[in-house]
Every structure is written in C-alpha cells, then in structure tokens.
Amino acid sequence: MKRSQRLTEVFREKAFQSALRAARASGVVLNSYFWGRSSNFKRYKGPNDLVTAADLKSCRVIRRELKRDFPTHSFLFEEPEFREDNQSDFLWIIDPLDGTTFHNRGLPYYSVLLALQVQGVTEFGLAYMPSNGDLFYVWRGQGGFHRNSRVRICKPLAVSQTCKLDEAVIGYSYGKSSSRMRAMAQVLRRLLPRCRALTRVSGADIGFVAAGNCDAFIDNSSSPWDFAVFALMVREAGGRVTDFSGKEWSTDSANIVVSNKILHSGILRLLSGLKTRS
Fold this sequence. Notes:
It is a single chain. By secondary structure, this protein is of the alpha+beta class. It has 2 domains: 3-156, Fructose-1,6-Bisphosphatase, subunit A, domain 1 (Fructose-1,6-Bisphosphatase, Chain A, domain 1), CATH 3.30.540; 165-271, D-Maltodextrin-Binding Protein, domain 2, CATH 3.40.190.80. Helices cover 34% and strands 27% of the residues. It has helices at residues 3-6, 9-34, 53-69, 100-104, 178-191, 204-210, 224-236, 264-271, and strands at 42-46, 49-52, 74-77, 90-98, 111-118, 121-129, 134-139, 143-148, 153-156, 169-173, 197-199, 216-219, 240-242, 256-259. The strands form 3 sheets. The protein has a 7-stranded mixed sheet with strand order 3-4-5-6-7-8-9, with helices on both faces. A 5-stranded mixed sheet has the order 11-10-12-14-13, sandwiched between helices. Helix 2 runs antiparallel to helix 3 (53-69) and helix 6 runs parallel beside helix 7 (224-236). It is globular, with a radius of gyration of 18 Å.
C-alpha cells in the first residue's frame, strides 16, 4: 500500500492523540523527578552524556502508551534497550527527555520529542515541554501549530522574518564528547560577535525557530531522536534545514543548521572552513 493511502484522517487523528497522550504521561513522570518527588539516579555514558532514572521511566511510559494503539509499529529510542524493530513501515523516533542535564540540575528546559516515519519519510512530529505546557506539532504537507492551554495560545508555526544576522537570536547545542565541545566553541566564537544573542535551552530552541521566536539553531552532532521532529517542523514553517556544508539535512546527517531561510547562507558562510570536530 502506498504511503499516502496509509495516512487517512482517521489514522492521523489516532496518531496525534496517541502521541499527545504519551507525551503528557511522560511529562507527569519528568515533572515528578524535576520537583524532587522521585529519586533520580544518574550515570554517565560519556563525558557529556548523562542518563537518569527519569530518562528510563519516560521511555517505559511512552512505549507503553504508544503500543496500546500501535503494537506492531517499530520504535527507535535514544536509549537502545527500549528499541524495537518489528519490520514495520511505521517507525516512532523518540527522545524521552531532551535536556537531561538541565532537568537533572533543576532548570526547566527539557522536552519530550516524538516523530513518526512512514516508509522512511518523517510524516509527523510532536514536541512537548512539561515545565510550561508548550506543545509544538506538525504533519508533513499540512503545517504545524504552537499550543499552550495554560496561556491559551494556538497559532500556526511560521519562521521569523529577521533578515540581518546582527538582529538574530540563535540557539545551539553540541555533541557529547570533549572534541565536539571544543569544535562548537570555535563556531560560537564566530557567531557571537555577529548575532544579537545566543541561547541554549535544549532542543526546544528549534521549536521556537519554527514558531518564529528564535531565528536559527546550530549543533555539530546530529541524531534522529534529537532532530527528526524539528527538521519537519521548521521546513513546514517555511525555514531551511541543512548540514554544515549546505546539504539538506536527513537522519543520517552528522550536524545540523536550522534557520528562517533568510539567514541561512550567511550562517553557512561563517561556518565555512571550520572543522566540525577538534
């Protein structure tokens, strides 16, 4: 069956509601750990690669909720022990806690990220920030929305119209190794004198690029669970998503540049000649 024939309105609504239920259930778990109501052990997978009890319980909750509606789908989690390859055309790509370090240190900059690929194409993405209730979601070809029921926001996603780099607010992140952190420091040294501000609030930065609050985002280490959601979101909102060389971003890309499209070529010029790893 063709991919388009699988994406009926009934299926879309079911997938959205299932993802939303999973994200909110995960949010209850993450907020419980955040406010100290649960003991949050931690271990390091690498120098800048932290996993906590909150990560693992969020994985369990999300997988349980999604499997209620989609037991035969495949699942790609950041934590490998939760992955399932069921040879399905449907693949959920999930980061159960984007911003683990912030969450663990009591900073409210953390998100739950879910993307759905159908036959290798990302069709749906949802990002939820449990600390403040921000919700971003998108369907390929149908645009996306930024919602927050607490403050009664519901608006279509649309990138900013900022046309000068010196007026731009740019988000960034970096890889989970010392060499990638040193390489990103070189990137930031080029950017900081030329833009209005740099911000670092985990992957939610890119949701805010899609919503027009930030103008660009850069990371020198790309993974599907971090960026599949946001690549679709920004493209549907009118922006551009590439790697450092200007090639269109895919889940196989090693790094990522996201922008409102207007600023993209200028940012790529600043990155030209830089090593992505030290």
